[in-house]
From TrEMBL, chains A, B, C, D, E, F:
CDD domains in UniProt: HDc, YhaM_OBF_like
Entries under Pfam families matching the protein: HD (PF01966)
HD domain mapped to chain residues: 174-243
Phylogenetic classification of the source organism: Bacteria, Bacillati, Bacillota, Bacilli, Bacillales
Keywords: Hydrolase
Lineage: superkingdom: Bacteria
InterPro entries: HD/PDEase_dom, HD_domain, HDIG_dom, NA-bd_OB-fold, YhaM_exoribonuc/phosphodiest
Keyword Hydrolase belongs to the record: yes
Native source organism of the sequence: Alteribacter keqinensis
Protein name, entry field: HDIG domain-containing protein
Length: 314, 314, 314, 314, 314, 314
């Protein structure tokens, strides 16, 4: 059966789809309709429900699951799903909402196991205690293991944040063989907690949005705040030298502050320099990988790079 | 009697001076000497103590007060104090170290009274509680009312930080008459606490230095940390909407983050835009004022502006 | 009765509207229609007049007043007014065109009184004479008191320029209490005349456009030219020290020239630094204020800031 | 006989030299001396007059001519002239001060003849009248034909401004054969008057300094002011379309304003784009030419380019 | 007869047109249509062929010539050609494809003659040999004399590259009269070969596209590669001093490398500085000339300048 | 025995030293002396040989080995070696010049063995052939295994280039476990050859200098030229897709071209993005490592980062 990512213009598409965005509009003829962004496991496609009544307007909300029989049309430069028949999914359909969102290739469970092994590898008492406090909190753990790393840019899928963190831990462990003088526990803890604030800046793993607090504070400082809370609970001063080194690596994760990339402070320790490099690399490679196979000639415009990239090559 | 700022080349200078920096050196002839930076209430001047013995090397440290009879010479493009006679000040000299450092024009005590009146004017319970927790802490209050706002750039004198904060409060109160729709309590609290982290990033009001933690974290984030501590103690969540607004104004105090001026996040509220403008203005006007009267034609190179400025004019 | 700013999609809108832009188009079916931008006291909305004949095409021009009975529709992501009935307003309708444009909250007359009081406060003979020459010119005064300060960015409404200038005078008078060492007459004259060139760069207060000369010269240099003309008429040299200081503050009003913000020269006097700060602040706060209340969650993208801003807050 | 530019370390140098800068200093031993910058037709060299008495201090000023017998020494990375014998030149020495400054290769008189031919070639009445008013003013003509184009950067020698302008006129005339659609009279007038404001921003052709007015206004706007004065005297409006085009080309002479290169407005006409290109090229090629032959390997650091340039090549 | 550039909205347009781009689409009603970009000697216009069958879809490709009878309509802010009747051109129509593309004003043959004269003027054996090797290659010569200099920016028409190179040779020859110390043969060879790599980076003179290799290498380095091949064949080392100077001027043709304009290295020789200036000037003036006469008031937005330019003026 | 890096001010230093730079100077008293930069295995120190005769001036050249008995003095803010006794080393001293230069911690021989293993691991025929051609050339191999990677910035020591390349190969092999979809042979070949052009841009492993050709071409393009030569000799087209991919990764090694970091083209393939990240990381970490242990408090200004870095930490 077709999916959003592989269906061609003119083809029929039948199945269950998740409502990711919806807005009620009035058309030129005075009729109301619902503007939809629909999603399945492979991607998203815009659509419209015409001639909707008040009951339908109330029923079709974000995260509603719809069963649709439609055809793909070309509309102002983009594919759109023209609905022939539609109904709201019911309990008997027995659809798991998670089957309708994009996910990491490795399962969330496997990724969590990988992460556990990294945590067990950390010797430093301070870092160990902070990590246990944070991941021991059920609410934080739930958010951390389901949220995307960002809405659009990279690892923008269910459990994308976890996928990103596990990838960074692996990179660090591999490169420590080349740069053995770097502080392993500081680096791994930075990998694990560098985006922990995203559990407060991104809301909802299925239809993610940025919180007010997230937009006003930024996830770097919010990661620091959560580390401070954990350190305090674990009985360590937030001015402890090792805690400060950890916070420094997190606050400088986007590179030089004077280049305006988003760091709160410029990296001033070798570990901060190292972490910025592998974090940026992982985000970029994931962004390229996420968008592979979408053009005929292998070239595709990437907003992250602001140029055409050759994602499919020799 | 002459002072450092008004003494001319070739003139004699006699009095008590504070050792602000010192380093032992070996001259070309093999003799040891001490390289000094001396200060009085009006400024600083380099000097050298020749032919020093071990006892002198041990006695002359940072913050030592020296009685000197010397002459001002020209040496590689700058004035230097050539010492004719020198001795270490003793108890009988009865010199108060604070009489040998540059200070704000308004006394520390008056500034503190001004600040108290501003605090009394704040209605908001959350902000009021946080301010009382912080200024109620004797150690913080002591640092806050004696430290400079920076080592070199602006308000670089004893109690300069307090002077800067009081000036910002006055600017805010005056401009609220023009922009009455802005949130007064949020603005005044931002003025009061925007640099509170400097009490942890700058060490020693007499011979100030930046702490390791300060260089690794930056005073913006450290101000936020101190506010969080105070909010927690006062029984407010650090995610409280008003606390978040306050922290936002502080984290964006240097303007747009993507311009690389040092903000942790770009200002996104009118109060943040307002505070950035008056903070930058006060720093610039103070920097120009601090360096007035130092050139013959009224023009002088300013590192903050990276150009010659006309500080004495029509 | 509904207005452009508060009407909702699907609602009816009846009243008089000003034609702010119009263009005759040919539709896909070969019929001609007029593309309109309509305005009332609260804002603007696009519309279309279909099946127009030659007489209508000739009659409906910029500044024509139309009486319309229409319904608001959603069209390509924006509201549009669908016309049910339309006619051109006649003398009996007795509509004042000024009642159909956005205006400053304070009336033009009150603003002018405020300005007069500021002018009376200026002691300096040179500045006083230049101001009287310029505001004594009826044509300049008429333009100065009706034009917007810009077409889109800030104070983009009838008498917006006057509103902006009065606001700057108030800011200056208030802040002089904090910075009494600044030259009051120089600052107030800069406030009054910094945009005087806009009377030659912007044409027509109702449907404003930039003149050719304005685009080729910029309003900074044109303000200087008008000041020179006035100084010459008043018998002062354009190289007079006070005139030069005034022109310097105007030419540097957008901040450092090497940052490419539009200044002709970088500010090199404390007054120039001061004026740049308050001018930029007033423009930003007005831009935020102008766009308040237009989104549900209080966040809105602002072209001036190139990011989403939280204009409605705690 | 040796000259400043060709004398080697260790060699003797005897002759008349012009005092270009001087300052009285006090040495470590308490003696006063005069710090000098001496010049001849080929360049400049620092020197010191030791043990000077009050009479000598009074007599040796900027523009004083000294007869010196000295030896060239190496002092802190630079050549310095060590004076063995010195006296102030007297009338009998019969030294023309102009023989002691660097000059253009073509004589001032020939350059002026070239310029006259260009002026005669201009057909446009408005431009012709403005040019005649300005060059008809004796004071302006005297300054224009003797000043350097800048103190250090390019054409930094006696009559350098005239040399630069003549070179630009020649470039324009040559390139009009390639781009015949450009407005010849507009371009030539721009060449002739683009730096006319420098007659007010630079003071003294022999020991040039920037005036206060020049630093506060910039020579672009001052050129416009002088053109306005001339247009007014000649009976043309300063808003005349041709006058505006001329002023536009002058105000945009340093390229795009938003790149912060110093233009008051960005070039928006083909002639403005053209003039910026040839002006920048002439300045750069002259800067390279001025510094030719000063290093052994043909490579030399250039402040204008901020890198090493290969000025002597294949 | 009407042409694409002079036809007005509502008018009929009849003639032969070249298919420059085409894509098959599915409309909202399920029908297939072909989206077209049509061109003639004066410009391009979008169009749509409705209700196309499989045979038509196969027949209408890039470079197909269509005979169309249509009417110009306004569609989403742009002109569009609404087709009334259409057929594919046949042999009897006897249409030369080159008559349907934009071309340089001077004919390709004349430009080539101009170029030959420049080549004959070069004395230097090394440069002469390299030029002969490259232009002696029939494939290179064919591409060089038919390709545009770029797809959109400047000289974006048939033989535009040749037109650009000839223009640069003329500029150089003219300016050598002003700067006779520059190396004539180096400059002319740089003009001739600076874009020779474009014969490998741009594919097809009629419907030009960038090659994969071109996007991965850039035409600067590819020009250097072709020069190396020619030098090798001609028996000269690629490290030969004159060959290196030539490659330097080509690699630095876009100005300072640290400004990110696209140069591989910053210009470090006077000839490199010179070439960058005339190349940029020629590209800009051509871009302005290409877009002349397209707006009513003479002002038009230019993507190369990122602002409105006044292309039709006094 | 003391070495340059561990000797303290006032201490005696005796041993053999390499002359790295020398220049004959004339002192204020007229005597000639030689300004020296001396080096041993641990670093460099300036010195002066006084009262030198013609024979000494001729004998003491770059790379001369001197035996010196001296004392370390403080001179204008830096250590300097004051010579008590000095003679030129003779054959009997039997000093190997390589024992007097800084070197990689791993021996050149071991590094070469590592590199050989990487080469043997490459499967791709094209890349294998190019690598064998280049490293099979004795002259290239000799330069490649002895030169520093740069004069000052990073890996600035004997065999530093080889050290850098081996480190990059290790990083790549380690990270391929995390990013297995990347092209291993392309990445390893890029590591091996990305700086191969430095064998032509840097001259002399003992006292390295940049060649004229290197400054005019840059090592990126010169690496491409050498790869082209090798591909040609090995019978592959320089337009071969795999050769182009390799050259692309090399030309984009410094990141985005439009940021002006020195790349000839922006990276457009995942492998180019990857290589830029690990190359920059290795350079930065090495720069930090090279300068470790030189300050008391662990903080030190780094020209590469343009800020103080904390190189010695928790």
């Amino acid at each position: 059966m077709g999916t959003i990512s592989n269906v061609q213009e003119g083809e029929r598409l039948v199945g269950f789809f998740l409502v990711k965005e919806r807005e009620v509009r009035v058309a030129a003829n005075g009729d109301e309709y619902i503007d939809l962004l629909l999603g399945d496991e492979t991607g998203t496609i815009p659509s419209k429900m015409w001639d909707v009544n008040d009951q339908q307007k109330a029923a079709v909300q974000r995260k509603t699951i719809l069963k649709i029989d439609g055809t793909v049309r070309h509309f102002r430069g983009k594919k759109q799903l023209q609905i022939n028949r539609v109904r709201i999914a019911n309990d008997e359909d027995n659809i798991d909402i998670q089957s309708l969102v994009q996910k990491s290739t490795t399962s969330r469970e496997e990724l969590w196991q990988d992460l556990r092994m990294v945590i067990d590898d950390i010797q430093n008492d301070v870092y160990g205690a902070i990590i246990r406090k944070l991941f021991g909190n059920k609410e934080i753990r739930e958010a951390f293991t389901t949220l995307p790393a960002s809405k659009v840019m990279h690892h923008a899928y269910y459990a994308g944040l976890l996928d990103h963190v596990v990838s960074l831990c692996h990179s660090t462990l591999q490169l420590l063989a080349v740069y053995p003088h770097l502080n392993k526990d500081l680096l791994l803890t930075t990998c694990l907690l560098h985006d922990i604030g995203k559990t407060r800046t991104i809301h909802d793993a299925i239809t993610p949005e940025y919180t007010d607090e997230g937009q006003l504070m930024g996830h770097l400082v919010m990661s620091v705040e959560m580390i401070n809370e954990a350190a305090f609970e674990a009985g360590f001063s937030i001015q402890n030298e090792e805690v400060v080194a950890l916070k420094h690596c997190i606050l400088s994760q986007f590179g030089d502050a004077d280049k305006g990339m988003g760091s709160a402070v410029s990296g001033k320790m070798p570990e901060a320099i190292f972490f910025n490099a592998i974090e940026e690399l992982d985000a970029k490679l994931n962004a390229l990988q996420m968008n592979k196979g979408q053009s005929e000639d292998g070239w595709q415009y990437h907003p992250m790079f602001k140029r055409k990239m050759k994602t499919d090559h020799v």
